[in-house]
């Protein structure tokens, strides 16, 4: 596994597992919870060390319990979760405190590696309130790193007016349907690490082109696409319920895409 170093010198794995359908009936995002976290168990068994979840996924407790009881040392697992913008979680400083403490309870730990604001707030005042509490926990070392998700360049610039600690990560969409290259370039210039959600989203024709590129590397279209992300310094959190696919998604550090092939992928 390769890592990216955040502003606070924390090392974050470049590949992690998403979890938004884990523990749910028919592996559906909106499915009822069924307590089956076998996919997360296998992901940790085959070598994933970054686990990404969110309160809004409704499965934070199951993800946390599974990670805590996986047999993998706590110090070896990078745990990420996200606070929603809903009033019940963010209406006051006390509400934010309670939300963070509940996340800690769910993960059965006394610290979390990365805590993100899941979506932009309509109100800058509310963002200031939430961010100040995250900074408090950051200063105590309970939240090792703090960041945002789905924030634009303008929103990051707005944070410069009040943030004591700037976001260390922005989790955004990046894939052949929406690369977000300009935003990624801005974030990297600002020393804000980028995590790509839905990194494998691609249309059929795009997958075929990626598969053609992968032939000379003896790699699948998905491995080529994930390799493209990490070669440009972007963290990826592909999600799979299949053990073989999980293994394949980690097997991307034994080859390097040529400049020519990177240009082809960028143009998809």
TrEMBL record:
Q: Where do the NADP-dependent oxidoreductase domain residues begin and end?
A: 16-267
Q: Which GO terms describe its molecular function?
A: oxidoreductase activity, acting on the CH-OH group of donors, NAD or NADP as acceptor
Q: Please indicate which residues carry the site annotation Lowers pKa of active site Tyr.
A: 82
CDD domains hit by this protein? AKR_AKR1-5-like (cd19071)
Q: Which residues form the active site?
A: 57 (proton donor)
Binding of substrate: at which residues?
118
Key words of the record? NADP, Oxidoreductase
The stretch of residues making up the signal peptide is: none
Q: Which family does it belong to?
A: Belongs to the aldo/keto reductase family.
Give the protein's recorded name: NADP-dependent oxidoreductase domain-containing protein
